[in-house]
Amino acid sequence: MSGFLWGVSTSAFQIEGAFDAGGRGPSVWDAFTPVHENQNASVACDHYHRWREDVALMTQLGVNAYRFSIAWPRVQPSGKGPVNAEGLDFYDRLVDALVDAGIAPVVTLYHWDTPLELEAEGGWLNRDVADRFADYTALVADRLADRVELWIPINEPAMVTLQGYAIGEHAPGKTLLFDALPTAHHLNLAHGRAVQVLRSYDAQAVGTANNHTPAWPATPNDVAAAEAYSEIHNWLYADPVLSGRYPDAVADLLPVAGGDLATIHQPLDFYGVNYYNPTRLRSPSEGNPLPFELVEIDEYPRTGFGWPIVPSGLGEMIAQLRERHPSLPPVHVTESGCSFPEDLHDAERISYLAGHLEAAREAGVRGYFVWSLLDNFEWEAGYSQRFGLVHVDYETQVRTPRDSFHWYREVISGG
């Protein structure tokens, strides 16, 4: 597969630690308390200090691409104003090291760590945040655009809206249900503004990383429930980016101003799909304010997180995207992975990745990024879930490659 990107993914908040280093400001996740056993990411994998060791691990693994995120609060502590030079210097050194190692830097500009001061002003409920994001994008692009090979403005906007603002499982912990929908539009608008900025700095390639899940009706009578869920989870984000329109079911609920959809609908060089599992839906029970209810998918094996393992769902989702958007750009699987207990002999992870990689290749994707290089801080689940090809002892910070690491290296070397 000539030109295929064999990669791994991480995110800044989940691995960097060093909350107080280099002038970093607080993010919404610093202040979010409902996490597993009151754990926090103040140390995490200490990647901020151990990044050279982690680049060496990637070199040993043999990947030719590394998807990582830049912490907005490390570059712009309050989310606006001048750059924090020390914070941006950190990413400058990391990008140089990756280039020197022959690993393509794939930069995500926002992976959920909104500067806390911006959240106090409304966060993604406030339309102005799209302008602030464009300003931040310019600061990063001015320094890194000459070496970064792929850019992803926003990671999984659906999860920010649904889990962060609608049901409160993620930071900032709001439970607004349908009143959270303005955040979806503002996230999409910020994406479009960022793409425009990146193009002005001659960015090499710009795309997305959207979370997608096939929506399965529990019975033939539940098709409408599955379609409603898919509109909110999948098409609310894919449609405006790819076709300049919103799904009819939600279009009237969004604060769209003149010119917004043209701004959002920017040409993309690739489309990133983050896939973990399908979702099964049924019609809502009495008193449920939502037009659907989730149903367990119990006929498949599960990950340590309890997620059903369905590799065919990846191909199913990519097929749906291509059918709905015939001009879909080349697809990268920008996240694919699983949590299992911390044993170094992780045959279950190898089986999971083998199945999903086969599905990805059958779907004709251009790249596959394993989530994740390292065990890390898994958001509201704290350190209870381990996704890494590399085991991390959080007490000593010792990194130990798992069997899946060696397996992936062999897969990569075989092409």
From TrEMBL:
Which amino acids does the record list as binding substrate?
A: Q14, H111, N155, Y276, W371, E378, W379
Q: Which GO terms describe its molecular function?
A: beta-glucosidase activity
Which top-rank group of organisms is this from?
Answer: Bacteria
Q: Which InterPro entries match?
A: GH, GH_1_N_CS, Glyco_hydro_1, Glyco_hydro_1_beta-glucosidase
PROSITE patterns per the UniProt record, alphabetical: GLYCOSYL_HYDROL_F1_2
Q: Which Gene3D superfamilies match?
A: Glycosidases
Enzyme Commission number, as recorded: 3.2.1.21
Question: What are the protein's UniProt keywords?
Answer: Carbohydrate metabolism, Cellulose degradation, Glycosidase, Hydrolase, Polysaccharide degradation
| GO cellular component terms given for this protein | cytosol
The record's section on Pfam families has: Glyco_hydro_1
Q: Which GO terms describe its biological process?
A: cellulose catabolic process
Q: Can you tell me which family this protein belongs to?
A: Belongs to the glycosyl hydrolase 1 family.
Protein name, entry field: Beta-glucosidase
